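Reviewer 2 asked us to include a model.

Predict the structure of this chain.
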Amino acid sequence: MQEGAALVRLARLFTDDRNAAEDLVQEAFIRLHRSADRIRDPGKAAPYLRSILLNLARDHNRRGLMSLRHSEALTPASSPEAPEDRVILNDEQAGIIAALEDLPTRQRECLLLRFYFDLTEREIGTTLDISPNSVKTHCRRGMESLRRILEVE
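Predicted model (structure tokens):
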């Protein structure tokens, strides 16, 4: 249950839409289940699930505008908000989130997995199918970019 909620939060960071995030997590679990017989090491299931989710989020964002149009048409204006939809961010938090959105995809993914999910470089590498050294590089470059963006603001 906690893993599912954490995955929804991760998907929300990439889709900015609670309904889409929940759908993507559900689809990720379905795809993991379909390929469960190919996973020999149970310890690799969680990174594989995160990898599936990130790929689904990328695909979702590529479809972008069309998906947004459909969700707006299907979502009633008076639908109840989830508590996480009502979080009020202070200016600093909003600035950091906006700066993260400006980063290249791989840097953003590495930083979110590192600092939001507290994953190790090895776990991030397994999730994103890149080497731990690449993770270090993306995190370092992402942090440098964030510093530059936030200093300008």
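The CA atoms of residues 104 and 142 lie 8 Å apart. Residues 65-69 have pLDDT under 50 and may be disordered. We have added this to the supplementary material.
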